[in-house]
Amino acid sequence: MREIQAEHIAEAVKNLCIQACYHLPDDVYKAFVRLKETEKSPSGKLIFEDLIKNADIARQGEFPLCQDTGMTVLFVEIGQDVHINGSLEEALHEGVRRGYTEGYLRKSVVAEPLFERINTKDNTPAFIHYKITQGDRLTIRMAPKGAGSENKSMLKMLVPADGMEGVKKTVLEAVKLAGPNSCPPMVVGVGLGGTMEIAALNAKKACMRDVDSQNSDERYAKLEQELLELVNKTGIGPQGLGGSNTAVKVHVEWSPTHIACLPVAVNINCHAARHAEITL
Amino acid sequence: MNQEKIKITAPFSKETAQNLRAGDQVLITGKIIAARDAAHKRLTETLARGEKLPVSLENAVIYYVGPTPARPNLPIGSAGPTTSGRMDAYTPAIIENCRISGMIGKGYRSQAVVDAMVKAQIPYLVSIGGAGALIARSIKSYTVLAYEDLGPEAVAVMEVVDFPAIVAIDSRGSNFYETGQAPYKEI
Predict the structure, then answer these.
(1) Which of A91, A154, B64, B113 could, after both became Cys, cross-link A10 (CB 3.0–4.6 A)?
(2) Predicted ipTM?
(3) What pTM was computed for the model?
(4) Does A147 contact B152 at a Cβ distance shorter than 8 Å?
């Protein structure tokens, strides 16, 4: 049994929030530098240049990468041999509260969705997904998720006969509907299989993967590549102003599913595919 | 996209509003007005009740933005554009009643908005979504004018110098999203 103090977790989450909003992940930065060269559209090239400049300015710590510092999504993996002194849940929210306040990040969460929509003023609650794992470590993967891209999510309960064509059609439809609103060049997360909510969760996890990663199953890795080529044929391009790079990457995550189901979820991340991770 | 950057002043004069063409790159200097979702809802509700607006928007260039909080000694935090489409439900009424001179945001607009723009002879510009740190450097001041309780969604006046933007839809209704994407569209 390993002990972790709740306070240690709160500070770690605070730092993740600040890091994710000011430091473009290295994998994304490198992708911008590479895509600036391959982009066919002159305006697209200029946009990549500006995105690189933006990341350089943000890294200095005065201005976040984007004013939409998002809802805070946390994927928490807790080793079964970990004991937490204090409330884990409260520590995670407290970390978000501190990160968004001390980091001068925008508070973008309303307490209730339909009637009064009052801002909680500290960006809590965080949206937390827990998983119990082997071992004595605690891993927190954090992603600030902005609304421009989140609003362009899509979920379709396809049937097995829809097959590969159905999956491709759904992804393409989601990308076309997203257009410039989701701040392309985007990262497209595709969740396949499972139940309705598992497909959505897989799509979110896919969005948060490093952009230099690929699915460990080579059939799905090949599908990721095919989907990327398809998405880039839409011509939407950087910022939707036309070009050969509509997406930086397409990621697929999958789960087993019912004999009669083929759920497809698409969750889109903007070009600032922000994510940060720590293992305690 | 036209590579040469045109320097213009905000609020836009009638000539500027009419002469900008879809695909023009501009650098805006002057005053623009920040207002987004919640402010648009309140403004149009006030107009619908026939009441006076808390701030005159005549000739205003409206920027759809909700900045991050400013650090001490800085005028503003990160301040890139938000999705304009969410304002579409309110925009025709704002254009018709307030006589604004332009809008800045990101993304597509509805046909109803384009029709109202053409009728009023005003342009819609976009700046780079997700480049809030870069854009913030062109913003010299941020002063709340109304709806302070809305926090980052308050109506505010911003002084800008060489604020970078691209004309997405001009006063004739020409759309740079369409013409920009066309050469690269394979499916």
Answers:
(1) A91
(2) 0.93
(3) 0.94
(4) no
